[in-house]
């Protein structure tokens, strides 16, 4: 059974804050508000087996997304992946289902960058044609 500390580490590893974790967990069938997520993170409640399975599904989905995006970036021969500072800009620019927050996208982008040998940049740092995440996916 997953401990509260393992739950915290898993969500940190996924780049999910309490609000984003609530949305992400809902996408895999676990309804929890941000307050409930925070309560488990702090050890006031214990994660159950269903929550552990949901977190595992989120981790697998993130790993699959990183592999898919890495393949796309290698195929395009781009050398940069764009990240954003705000959730609003991320939602507007990153055309993927299940984008839960700017922080989550930066985590995914950093993993893709590690795998594909890319630089992670903000839009104002983009070299060349000024491509944003919409154009790079």
Number of strands: 2
Kindly name the structural category: mainly alpha
3D shape:
elongated
The portion of residues forming beta strands comes to under 5%
Helix content: 55-70%
Give the distance, in angstroms, between the N- and C-terminal Cα atoms.
Answer: 37 Å
Mean pLDDT: 89
Oligomer: single chain
How large is the radius of gyration?
Answer: 16 Å
The string of secondary-structure elements, in order, is HHHHEHHEH
Number of helices, counting only DSSP H or I runs of 4 residues or more: 7
Low-pLDDT regions: none
Largest sheet: 2 strands, parallel
Give a quick summary of the entry.
This protein has 137 residues and is mainly α. It has helices spanning 4-14, 18-27, 34-41, 49-76, 87-93, 102-116, 133-136, and strands at residues 80-82, 119-121.
Summarize this structure as a short list of keywords or feature phrases.
about 140 residues, mainly alpha, two-stranded parallel ribbon, about 5% strand
Give an account of the 3D structure.
The chain has 137 residues and is mainly alpha-helical. It has helices at residues 4-14, 18-27, 34-41, 49-76, 87-93, 102-116, 133-136; strands at residues 80-82, 119-121. The chain has a two-stranded parallel ribbon. The radius of gyration is 16 Å and the shape is elongated. The model has no long low-confidence stretch (mean pLDDT 89).
């Amino acid at each position: 059974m997953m401990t509260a500390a393992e739950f915290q580490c898993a969500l940190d590893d996924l780049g999910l804050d309490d609000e984003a974790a609530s949305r992400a967990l809902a996408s895999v069938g676990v309804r929890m508000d941000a307050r409930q997520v925070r309560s488990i993170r702090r050890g006031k409640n214990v994660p159950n087996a269903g929550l552990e399975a949901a977190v595992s599904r989120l981790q697998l989905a993130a790993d699959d997304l990183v592999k898919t995006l890495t393949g796309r970036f290698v195929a395009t021969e781009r050398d940069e992946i764009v990240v954003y500072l705000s959730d609003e800009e991320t939602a507007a620019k990153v055309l993927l289902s299940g984008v839960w927050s700017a922080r989550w996208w930066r985590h995914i982008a950093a993993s893709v960058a590690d795998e594909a040998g890319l630089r992670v940049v903000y839009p104002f740092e983009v070299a060349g044609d000024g491509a944003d995440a919409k154009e790079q996916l």
